[in-house]
Specification:
two-stranded antiparallel sheet, alpha/beta, Rossmann fold, Serine Threonine Protein Phosphatase 5, Tetratricopeptide repeat, 9-stranded mixed sheet, 11 strands
């Protein structure tokens, strides 16, 4: 990260030695070092002290903006980054960072303008062309996306991310042989790169080369024994040693890495689970009156929160991913957010303490739903509702659930009826629905509702 020298002095943050004045330039270097080491609290304090002395310090404004985005405060981030660019518009990295924030918040046209300016200022920067390729893919301009990735590779033939992104793009375009070439090239250059290995396994699977797909994950495990992604996707690909649910380590790893771009990526996939949950509620609960105790089970970045809040006198969210929860907090719709495994959290709730448990695309990381539905039945009050979405297995297939190569489970409608009834819940509906679009195909699923029976009348 390039910095500009500024005149002036700043008292160091508490605890920093030696206890003497330092220049703004030295303070900025300290803050950037803290920032790069993920010391966000300390970095934010130092950026703030710099800006208290020099409100128009372009570097501090910019890096504070990047930090605020990392903390889920993207509106503040955009304002700060734009202020920095108004003061110094000549740094290609800053336009690139603006494009990253705009892309991750779903402002695609504005992101395109930012990346285009970054390319103009840094035409030989492979990383910027790669980011432009990601943006073009999000816009649905796949030919331009491919061209941008190939330009990045031309500028830097060893740029792993560009090879991997090109391979994933080609795979989604069903150009699987070309995808294999791109991903294999990336893996040659960086054999331990997990994202490439996972994409290569999927490419083999889509070609029907199941043994080759499984071998990718087995090789990964030889190099990284116990790697949660490799273990999980090998099970999904081979059908062997399938866990009853995704492990905590897998869920945390995947969703912590996915948090910053989660909302924008799901919007690109026409993700509908929160809206489907919201549409299911009025027939069950009537008009929202802010009178219910509600749990958003697997709340992620909080996409369901604003849709559930009108029903809630108290709205609680729970998720295993700390970074997802950090993105949910700025929505300011939750009374409490908890980092915990879902079943254990619900089991710890007082019996009969909840009126509604809603779960959008979280139980698709569970195969066996017995424990979580029993916990939900115990936690619900009489007449309380459990409402959730899962992906579906065609009715003709016999298994209750299966783990798919992409890492999510699918469930049979009959099994959903059986497991809910066994938990003591009354099934309200198992309604077919399109949950999202992947590889230009709808992902089929169910919107499921089940009620805890009303308390028996006294004799």
């Amino acid at each position: 990260m390039k910095t500009k020298k500024k005149h002036g002095h700043l008292k160091p943050p508490p605890g920093y030695q030696p206890a003497k004045q330092v220049s703004l330039d030295d303070a900025l270097k300290l803050a950037v070092a803290m920032h790069c080491a993920n010391g966000l609290d300390d970095a934010e304090k130092v950026y703030g002290r710099i800006l208290a002395v020099a409100p128009d310090h372009a570097d501090a404004l910019h890096f504070m903006g990047v930090l605020r985005h990392q903390r889920g405060r993207s509106d503040q981030a955009l304002a700060l980054i734009r202020r920095s660019l108004a003061l110094n518009a000549g740094v290609p990295d800053w336009h690139n960072n603006l494009g990253n924030v705009l892309l991750e918040t779903g402002h695609l046209d504005e992101a395109a303008a930012a990346y285009e300016e970054a390319v103009r200022l840094g035409p030989d920067r492979a990383d910027i062309h790669n980011n432009l390729g990601v943006l073009r893919r999000a816009q649905g301009r796949v030919e331009d996306s491919e061209a941008a990735y190939r330009r990045a590779i031309e500028l830097d033939p060893k740029y792993i991310d560009a090879h991997t992104n090109l391979g994933v793009l080609l795979q989604n375009l069903l150009r699987s042989q070309e995808a294999l070439q791109a991903l294999s090239k990336a893996l040659e250059m960086k054999p331990l790169y997990g994202r490439t290995r996972q994409a290569l396994g999927m490419a083999y699977y889509m070609l029907g080369r199941f043994d080759d797909a499984a071998q990718v994950y087995r090789d990964w495990l030889k190099d990284e024994p116990g790697n949660p992604e490799a273990v999980h996707h090998l099970a999904g690909c081979s059908g062997q040693a399938v866990p009853e649910r995704a492990t905590d380590s897998y869920v945390e790893l995947v969703f912590d890495g996915f948090a910053d771009s989660f909302d924008a990526k799901l919007a690109k996939l026409s993700y509908r689970a929160p809206q489907l949950i919201a549409q299911a509620l009025p027939p069950l609960l009537g008009e929202p009156r802010g009178a219910l105790d509600v749990l958003d089970a697997g709340c992620g970045t909080g996409l369901c929160g604003p849709l559930l809040a009108p029903y809630a006198r108290r709205l609680v969210g729970v998720d295993l991913s700390a970074r997802m929860l950090a993105r949910a907090e700025p929505r300011q719709v939750y009374d409490a957010l908890h980092k915990a495994e879902l079943t254990a959290f619900i089991e710890a709730e007082a019996a009969g303490s909840l009126d509604l448990i809603a779960s959008a695309d979280t139980l698709c990381y569970f195969g066996d739903l017995g424990a979580v539905t029993r916990a939900a039945a115990r936690a619900l009050r009489p007449d309380g509702w459990l409402v959730f979405t899962v992906e579906s297995i065609p009715a003709a297939e016999a298994q209750d659930f299966r783990l798919n190569p992409h890492g999510r489970y699918s469930h049979r409608a009959g099994y959903l009826h059986e497991v809910l009834t066994a938990a003591g819940l009354v099934v309200g509906g198992v309604e077919p629905a399109h949950l999202r679009i992947e590889a230009d195909q709808p992902v089929e699923g169910f919107v499921v509702s089940a009620r805890k029976a009303p308390a028996a009348a006294p004799n």
